[in-house]
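INTERNAL AUDIT FORM
Audit reference: QA-55
Scope: verify that the stored structure record matches its stored sequence.
Auditor: D.O.
Record contents follow.
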Amino acid sequence: MIESQYTIMSSLIDKRKYSHFNTPDNPYSVGTKFGVERAFFEIQEHEQRGRKIPIIFESRRRNEDRTLEEEFKKMVEQSNLNGIKGMFDFHCISKKANLPGLQLADLVARPIGVHYLHPEQHNRAWEMLLPKMRTSHDGKLEGYGLKIYPQFDPTE
């Protein structure tokens, strides 16, 4: 994982804070929106505008996959990001397909979550992933390779 070339873009929804919103959207949908936005920005930085890019989600169940695809299409259609419409080719793929990308996503998700919940705890996996995460030109991680939502405590 250290030697392979890849870039991590992650969205993290803090359900403890998010559940205090008056009418919260489905956190999976919100996380998907933030993840797709980060992927779009990364693609734009690599001058891939106008290319059709496959975007792959891990399949759950038929109804959940259909709901996710509807939410995805609605999000793209309502987006103000210039060039996002028609860019992504949506796919839901079963974990049984054993795709390396889905395996990698499973491997990176937990260390990111553990680091968020326990930043003081030593986390070798997080330390290994950190250089692979998308950052701004000046090295900023949050908002680039890691979108955390909400950023504030709604009970304050």
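Auditor finding: record pair retrieved intact. The chain has one domain: 10-149.
Action required: none
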